[in-house]
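Exam revision sheet. Question 4 asks you to relate a sequence to its structure. Input first:
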Amino acid sequence: MYHSVSRTPDDPYRITVTPERLDDQLHRLRRRGLRAVAMTELLAARAAGSARNLVALTFDDGYADFTEHALPILRRRGCGATLFVLPGRLGGDNAWDPLGPRKPLLCADGIRHAAAQGVEIGSHGLTHTDLTQADDATLRAETADSRARLRELTGQEIAGFCYPYGTVDARAIEAVRAAGYRYACAIAPGPLAGDLALPRVHIGQEDTGMRLELKRRISPFRRPMPPVDQALPAQKSPSLESP
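Answer key, structure tokens:
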């Protein structure tokens, strides 16, 4: 789980890695015989029993520095990735981070460019809203409406969703299911883990050498997860219908 790739000394939320650090991390993965791919490819390989040497890369928030810094490195290293963007904040910034610094987000053309280069585009909601605190109308807009906007913007199917802040509950999962997503990423969903609440490991500027390898080895994604239906309560929210 990555976020911003830039040279930013002010990083209170530890969401930034430098281009040099990203390049080094991807080099280390390749040196260990691992291939970085998008989430959709990893999940398909897992279903086929062939995911042993694969690791998925995800980039949250859709920062403008993705196309400037991350994308050239991914292409040079032969890596795939999934980019989770906010169609309700095109060309805006990370206003949800009160401590700053302000980081510009991709505009529509930037997202199209990333998609044209083979990057999988997924939704991070419309506006980076905590879905566990959202009312029904907001929940539907953040999941279903964001998917519809991205389908129109990219001309591609949008298979993946990423929960803002990594926060998730059964109601949010049901909204994601109703919106038609095939998978969704969280951070540490606990007993809710499944294809609609996939755990991920945060990768930051300090992750080099053994620290990076240790995170890979202890990743919760490497442990068996129940099908998503087993992770949800039997009762479904009647207010969340498929669009």
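Marking note for examiners. The chain is about 35% helix and 10% strand.
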